[in-house]
């Protein structure tokens, strides 16, 4: 059976892909950025998770707001340490 993508699903996937490309360039060698369904998955070292998570969260929020001020969909971001022991999941809400 063929799946038909709605405009909303297509927009969400496009936003996710664009954010992934943007965050890859912003985060650089500090972590790995990938897609997990319609979510953005960022994998960083345990040390960075414990010591730099707050700064990374601010950087992500600022970067996304700066480059995508008008968003049609919510964006879910998962940050994990490379050992998958720690995880932080948050949402960036669509613009009003």
Brief sketch in words of this structure:
The protein is of the alpha+beta class and 96 residues long. Helix content is 45%, strand content 26%.
Strand order of the largest sheet: 1-2-3-4
Q: Would you count the extended β strands for me?
A: 4
Distance between the termini: 36 Å
The proportion of residues in beta strands is: 25-35%
Work out the radius of gyration.
14 Å
Secondary-structure element series: HEEHEE
Low-pLDDT stretches: none
Mean pLDDT equals 88
Could you describe the largest sheet, including whether it forms a barrel? 4 strands, mixed
Helix and strand content put the structural class at alpha+beta
Helix content: 40-55%
* Silhouette: globular
What does this structure look like?
This protein is an alpha+beta fold. The protein is 45% helix and 26% strand. The chain has helices at 7-27, 46-67, and strands at 31-36, 39-44, 75-81, 87-92. A four-stranded mixed sheet has the order 1-2-3-4. A hairpin with a 5-residue loop joins strand 3 and strand 4 (87-92). Helix 1 packs across helix 2 (46-67).
